[in-house]
Amino acid sequence: RGTMDRFRAMRPLEIWVHTPERPIVLDSAFWDGTRLVFPDGDGWNLWRSYALDRSIVFNEYTHAFVESVFGPLRNPDVPQTGAMNEGVADYFSASAGSAINARDGKPEAVVIGEWALPLTKRDISEPRRIDQWDSSATIHENSRIFSSTLWELRQRLGGPVADRLVLASLEACV
Predict the structure, then answer these.
(1) Cα dist. 107→97, 135, 139 in Å?
(2) 67's torsion region: left (phi>0), alpha (psi -120 to 50) or beta?
(3) 19 has which bridge partners?
(4) Model confidence over 41-66: pLDDT tens digits?
(5) pLDDT tens for each residue of 133-152
(6) Most buried of the four, 15, 145, 158, 159, by CB within 10 Å?
(7) CA distances (Å), 136 to each of 79, 125, 139, 140, 159, in order?
(8) How many beta carbons lie within 10 A of that of residue 150, not counting itself?
């Protein structure tokens, strides 16, 4: 109940995407605490417009939702928290995409960035273990340890139960 009350109290989100007056040339979509930003593609097809990839839109919206409702999950003194934050966003992105795909009779949506980031997409159905943590890797690479664990939980318990359990764990952190 507290979660939904905080969700209802969220202010409207500002979202930046490409406009001819304000092109956005960055290499990552992001939530900066006040707005969602979806850059344009690079022009060489290494990455395409993030605003056109629903897995990335769901991922960034999850960051906004989690931080607005539960507070920041990242602690600069604990590097694993950045990867866990990304893992939660990847999990809910895949969960939302899978719900839409199920409605349309398509397979689960377990790959994040498949359309916009063909070279660096993240498949959260590939099992990862904590001994695969790499302190020199990006938080996106290390996030797959956490997101694949959450996805396995979803496979074992079913989507609605796993989604509620993950939300309840975030609620417990508040």
Answers:
(1) 10, 33, 27
(2) alpha
(3) 22
(4) 666 666 777 888 899 999 999 999 99
(5) 998 888 889 999 999 999 99
(6) 145
(7) 11, 23, 9, 12, 33
(8) 23
Contacts for 76-81: CB closer than 8 Å, 24+ residues apart: 79/135, 79/139, 80/133, 80/142
- pTM: predicted TM-score of the whole model, two decimal places: 0.85
What would the 3-class secondary structure string for 28-88 be? CCEECCCEEECCCCCCCCCCCCHHHCHHHHHHHHHHHHHHHHHCCCCECCECHHHHHHHHH
What's the one-letter identity of residue 58? F
The encoded tokens of residue 9 equal 């109290």
Nearest to 143 by CA among 95, 84, 77, 93: 84
